[in-house]
Specification:
Low-confidence stretches: none
Largest sheet: 8 strands, parallel
Distance between the termini: 19 Å
Radius of gyration: 20 Å
Number of helices: 13
Helix content: 25-40%
Oligomer: single chain
Number of domains: 1
CATH class: Alpha Beta
CATH architecture: Alpha-Beta Barrel
Length: 375
Amino acid sequence: MRDLVEIGMGRTARRAYGFDDVQIVPSRRTRSSRDVSTAWQIDAYRFEIPLVTHPTDAVVSPSMAVRIGLLGGLGVLNAEGLWARHAGVDKLLFRLAAAMDEADEAAAVRLLQQWHSAPIRLELITEAIGQVAQAGVTVAARVSPQHARDLAPDLLAAGVEILVVQGTIVSAEHVSSAAEPLNLVEFIASMDVPVIAGGVGDYRTAMHLMRTGAAGVIVGHGAGASTSTGDVLGIGVPMATAVADAAAARRDYLDETGGRYVHVIADGGMRTSGDIAKAIACGADAVMLGEPLAAATEAPGNGLYWTAAAAHPSLPRSHVTEVPEGSIGIDTLLFGPSSDPSGTMNLFGALRRAMAKTGYSELKEFQKVGLTVRP
């Protein structure tokens, strides 16, 4: 039964939970962390850790995408971001850091809006994709639903192997009187590569996206300290409930199709390694991380983080925020060793340890671990 709460006469709301509200319950068995696998596979592509990067220029440059790929994750380039519009992006990002020292708190967002008003240049995004492809790692790129139809053929020709169609909210049925909306069923059927689509926040929308033929569904919209979607649109996704609902849709869709498995990717609400473990425990196959990776020395944001929504020309929904400073390499951030007990380093070493402490050897098994809700 759904837990409904009356918020006024004749108006009820469903009680939902974030990762801070749930805890993982140990089982009767433990095992050595050396016997644990954190590998996952989507379509023909296998990854050693369940990491997909949030497609923001603050975290993912071509070189960072390569590094993430070599470490066993999937780096996703933003095909509508700065590397697709400007040469010399490093200089722009240093200007952005300087703008953070100004008294005007909106100065950095205005710069991003200005830079993103420049047209997308096919030769630049082709060059960026080529750098990743030449390194021999899986190439992934993100497009918005508004530009997916126009950009996808050129991205695939450049070497993209996994296409991510991502917006704040993505549905299988978008209604528009201004222009012909993207038909995801037809679009995905025309693609020769797996398509990951999202974000979603509920069972019904997740199920609809799965029925479009998507290989993976993104749950959430990257919520964290930098995002302001709740303040601007009033939309929020309590992630533990949202991931569990999407996992239920995945199970029902698996039965409906007689065996087609769609991956659930959690995006948002994760600050620590414990949150990552809880996301998997709630049913996610992988996590999409942005802000937790911005502290890495290799991150192009120079200690800053924002999402692509910061550059919206009329309604930005992300701040440019400073992340804790430190000389942390991405290797240490993901795999340790760590001297920090806060859970912000050795993210996937901690996931491996959580699985071992609860007796599970594979991610799909760990999705069955017991959970409790804080009082």
